[in-house]
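Students often ask why inverse folding is considered easier than folding. One informal answer: many sequences map to the same fold, so there is more than one right answer. In these notes we will look at a single instance of the problem. The structure comes first.
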């Protein structure tokens, strides 16, 4: 499977690219917006596309034509304000969905955030972030794409355990970024996850087994 990773240079994205690149079954296409990021991935032997997520849908679609699936794990980052969050986490996500449809790519996995499907759980410190994630998810659900929405809890850089807890609703908890990446790839490999949206934190159940429980 050829997988386009939008947000490949992000912390989760880098894990996804590496795991796909090391796989014998998949090929990663890393979408980045800076030349130095492109050079970094190319040095690793990863196929790379230089596309600005704030650019045109056509630019994204042209790259997506080479893919069988799209993973959207882009984010504006905690150092930006509400304006950039809306342009990347919301509009960038929606443009990527439109590009997927334009390119004929049905499979789409998005990384959201735990609890954003309930307004009373939106982050009080940055409600615009939760709103952007929520409305991107809603758009995806109505897009006609074969979607999976993964809503991880607090992200850490701890080593992955390969074990998680998933459900439509979970209390907030933490999860290593490496395990989020592994769950993304496992979701791509399991058609049972199509049409599913779920919260995820660290747990005691192996990833593939946990996904079967949805």
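Output (designed amino acids):
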């Amino acid at each position: 499977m050829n997988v386009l990773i939008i947000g490949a240079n992000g912390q989760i994205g880098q894990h996804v690219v590496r795991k796909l690149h090391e796989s014998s079954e998949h090929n990663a296409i890393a979408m980045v917006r800076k030349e130095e990021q492109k050079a970094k991935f190319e040095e690793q032997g990863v196929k790379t596309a230089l596309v600005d997520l704030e650019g045109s849908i056509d630019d994204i679609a042209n790259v997506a034509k080479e893919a069988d699936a799209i993973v959207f794990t882009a984010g504006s980052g905690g150092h930006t304000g509400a304006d950039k969050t809306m342009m990347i986490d919301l509009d960038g996500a929606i443009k990527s969905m439109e590009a997927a449809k334009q390119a004929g790519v049905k499979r789409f996995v998005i990384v959201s955030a735990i609890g954003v499907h309930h307004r009373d759980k939106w982050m009080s410190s940055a409600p615009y972030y939760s709103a952007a994630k929520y409305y991107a998810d809603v758009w995806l659900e109505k897009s006609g794409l074969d979607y999976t929405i993964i809503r991880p809890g607090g992200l850490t850089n701890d080593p992955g355990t390969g074990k998680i807890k998933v459900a439509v609703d979970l209390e907030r908890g933490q999860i290593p970024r490496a395990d989020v990446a592994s769950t993304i790839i496992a979701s791509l490999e399991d058609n049972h996850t199509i049409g599913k949206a779920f919260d995820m934190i660290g747990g005691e159940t192996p990833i593939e087994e946990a996904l079967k429980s949805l």
